[in-house]
Amino acid sequence: MSLKEQLAKQTGIGLLIMGFSTFFAAISFFLISRILEREEIAYIGIAAGLLAMLSPILLSPEVILFRDYAAFKKNTNKYVSAFLFFWLVRSIFIMGVISVISYLLYAKDNFQLFLYVVGAGLIMCFSMLHASIQELCFVEFKQVETLRLNFIYYAIFLVGLIYIYFNRDIMIYLVVLMLSSFALALLWLERLFRVFRFVPVFDVRALETLLKTIISGVGMWSHLISSSIQLIYRADLFFLGLFVTAFVTGNYTIALMFSSLFVFVPQVLQKMCIAGLTRSVSKPEDMKIVNAFLKYTFVLSIIQVAGYVLLGKFIISFIDAQNADSIFQLGLFLVIGTNIFNVIRPIHSYAFARANLKQLLVHVFLPAGILAVIFYSVAAYAYGGLVTAQANVLVYVVLVLIYLRYAFSKMKFQLSLQWITREEWLLLQKILKRFHIRMDRSV
């Protein structure tokens, strides 16, 4: 099989995994929102918010798989051993930090919340192990393993949800999550030994290479940019957990969980744009690719917001008819904010492929992240949930304006307003021809 065919196959599997994950996330969101009490759902949001605040210290080494794949391929056992050792040390450090902070914030007034946050941190550590091995599958063109194991994980978790339905308690939900995540970690380790024939080898040089990749250059800037995005997405939950009632935080968590479903398809387009840019060899070709995807994300974002306006309250009423209006109102601002950023995801792809990531962090994401923390904290403390949701829109607008300014001035991005190119028109004609529809281009 040629490289082009392999890439096409892996892209197809990746889209299938993304679609499967989206469907499962939607089902889980609906069931959990129906099963748990609103105050218990607040625990989920508060934990997510705290982990987002701590995301800058969650250093990730996976970038080495893409940047130094040739060296990695020759020394797989050494690098994977270094990955696992780093994961263990990082997990111990992270759990220590989470335990101390959550104890100081929550243990005195709500010990159960403290236990949930610590448990959520442990689940996150298992998830980081899953992610490392999944990236290995990605670069080795073995994503089918990811598909298989995700299917097993979802099956286990859905069985757990059935048990939770008859035993409705947030701590039982936490235990189900922990056991499911731990089982998936064991399955991934089993695949690592069997499929990749992994043999543990401790090598100081491999570990040094890994650490250098993490704390310097592309790895560090990429991680901090991702952390800034996490802050913008979820830090509002952390501040709401500090300043408003658990019921309001629970409603906000449901609205945010709902709005997160509007990210999956734009993320697929973002990855497809990156894939196209990796094959581009010139600036004009870059602009052609990015502008094409900008049209798609623009149209998709309008459709998503319109879909939420038309159907959002109807869907939310199945979760909580009594509070549907307030949740819908919160979700409206969160969905608008999310889709404002969705529009420029192709520019984000272009920046990651071509820009200086350190400059991108300093000029775009660091100011936006700091602004998000200030706006969310003030809004949550002084005004409550609705104004915090409105602050999301303001933060995303500022982020997009800063990003566009950087793209035009520093990256020399060239916006094209051509809504349909010749290639797109020919493709559209070919598709319509299959349905015996004839179209003549008059413009």
Automatic annotation (TrEMBL):
Keywords of this protein's UniProt record, alphabetized?
Cell membrane, Membrane, Transmembrane, Transmembrane helix
Q: What is this protein called?
A: Polysaccharide biosynthesis protein C-terminal domain-containing protein
Membrane topology value: Multi-pass membrane protein
**Species, as recorded:** Candidatus Iainarchaeum sp
**Gene Ontology cellular component?**
plasma membrane
Q: What PANTHER family would the database entry show? A: O-ANTIGEN TRANSPORTER-RELATED, PST FAMILY PREDICTED COLANIC ACID TRANSPORTER
Q: What is its main location?
A: membrane
The reply to whether Transmembrane helix figures as a keyword in the UniProt entry is: yes
Q: Which InterPro entries match?
A: Poly_Biosynth_Transport
List where the protein spans the membrane. 12-35, 41-59, 80-105, 111-129, 149-166, 172-189, 210-233, 239-265, 293-315, 327-348, 360-383, 389-408
Q: Where in the cell is it found?
A: Cell membrane
Keyword Transport included in the entry's annotation:
no
